[in-house]
Amino acid sequence: MKEKAAVLYLRGAAGPRGDAYVLITGAGQSDYNPAMPSYFALVPAAGTGARMGGDQPKQYRLLAGQPMLRHALDTLCASPRIQRVFVVLAETDAVWERFDWSGLGVKLAVLRCGGATRAESVLNGLQAVAEAVRADDWVLVHDAARPCLAPAQLDGLIDQVGDDPVGGILAVPVADTLKRAAPDRRIEATVPREHLWQAQTPQMFRCGLLREALSRSRAVTDEAGAVEALGQRPLLVAADPSNLKVTYPSDLALAERLLLDRKET
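Request: output the structure for the sequence above.
Response:
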């Protein structure tokens, strides 16, 4: 089922060519207080999930009866603190319209400007919403493949980072012993885990700062890496392993169990 009229649509040729984007506002768009920074979420969902396998992009694999992407969008759209939720799709994505997203309400905005990499998709999305999101507004970038984000984790990130001069990310301290491998897969060294954290999402930064960072660093694997390349030091906000990223088929069962358990409590 296609998106309802209340959804914001942003269209335009995507990519690094610098093409213009056109903002189309549908019913349900609300004004925000110009005196205070607002919070926006952006979910890059233009990838194929090659490591997961299957005949469709990973973000559309069914999980507890819904597309994986739906669970992440549910949490973000339900937050009263988030003004708008942008989902970045590939221009050629033909799977999105097979599902009914109307239950997510009027916060959802679909951006068909996905790039070849995560960084490109996020940057394209930020460029697409430049007229709707101010440079000092906060943008929370969240993985489409992290379906188990809990409202308390989201609130904790906003609470701790909302007054930070740089921004920050959800993360968990590394608990396992880490080994560095040689090319022959023999152990080369044991890496001290003290002060090591495993990055999660959302990753929360001011829109202007993040746009600048990604414009300069296109090869990063997360937003914090781009901000670090500017010489900044993002804040680590402790989360927990339940906010896992579904990467391999074996992760599906664990994520589904977490989601079903949450519904039962």
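The chain is about 25% helix and 25% strand.
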